Structure to design on (268 residues):
């Protein structure tokens, strides 16, 4: 039998910062947590111990592919439980890692497509620098020469500015996503779904499952045979739905646990 490919977003889908855990139950009933990421000697991301056990089972039963907008360096800070994934997708599909090493042929294909189909990264960076107010911008960042993002003070961020940026980006072949304190500007041809299809081809998987919480995950969910989204995030806030995508009620770290249960149920 061909293997099942499971491509899942990480942040706010399977792993959670302390601020995103959404522990609404009494303290005494809170789940035990496992730290899966440390940055600058500080714990940064967590999953429940139950979710960690489920992910270990999943890694043995399917081709599990971490699928993230993170750069390679940011991804490699994460220490997920279970077997080390043979494949990982980073930079929103810009890189496919094979046993931890970036596939240069895939990287070159992506770069060529971006050059042909959308405005340059420099044009987008210049626009962000000219229009984003230092009052609410804390950092300007570029990820692996693929896309740009801002770290902002969310409570000060004007909603109209985000809408205007999205319109400006749309006609230039880019998309905008607001995730927590970060605003991403990403080229439309740079997709997790294209990278997932390539990994499916290489692994021989004929069935694919996916999960994600942001607008940057929508194409991934649509490309999979079955998808899930948690009860938080951009997709939930915009009430985004599709016939093959199940909207879960759980929010925060409980959603990560539920998603892994759903993956395992489908794989089995």
């Amino acid at each position: 039998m061909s293997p099942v490919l499971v491509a899942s977003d990480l942040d706010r889908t399977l792993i959670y910062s302390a601020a995103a855990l959404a522990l609404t139950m009494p303290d005494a009933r809170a789940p035990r947590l496992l730290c899966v990421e440390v940055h600058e000697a500080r714990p940064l991301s967590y999953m429940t111990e139950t979710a960690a056990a489920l992910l270990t089972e999943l890694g043995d039963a399917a081709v599990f592919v971490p699928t993230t907008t993170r750069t390679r360096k940011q991804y490699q800070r994460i220490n997920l439980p279970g077997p080390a994934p043979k494949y990982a997708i980073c930079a929103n599909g810009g890189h496919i890692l094979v046993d931890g090493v970036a596939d240069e042929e895939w990287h070159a294909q992506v770069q060529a497509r971006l050059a042909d189909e959308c405005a340059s990264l420099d044009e987008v960076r210049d626009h962000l620098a000219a229009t984003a107010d230092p009052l609410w911008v804390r950092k300007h960042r570029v990820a692996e020469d693929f896309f740009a993002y801002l770290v902002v003070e969310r409570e000060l961020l004007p909603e109209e500015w985000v809408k205007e940026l999205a319109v400006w980006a749309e006609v230039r072949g880019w998309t905008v996503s607001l995730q927590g304190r970060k605003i991403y500007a990403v080229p439309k041809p740079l997709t997790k779904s294209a990278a997932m299809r390539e990994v499916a081809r290489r692994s021989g998987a004929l069935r694919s499952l996916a999960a994600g919480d942001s607008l940057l995950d929508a194409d991934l969910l649509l490309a999979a045979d079955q998808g899930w989204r948690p009860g938080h995030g951009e997709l939930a806030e915009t009430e985004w739905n599709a016939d093959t995508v199940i909207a879960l009620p759980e929010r925060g770290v409980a959603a990560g646990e539920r998603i892994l249960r759903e993956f395992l149920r489908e794989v089995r």
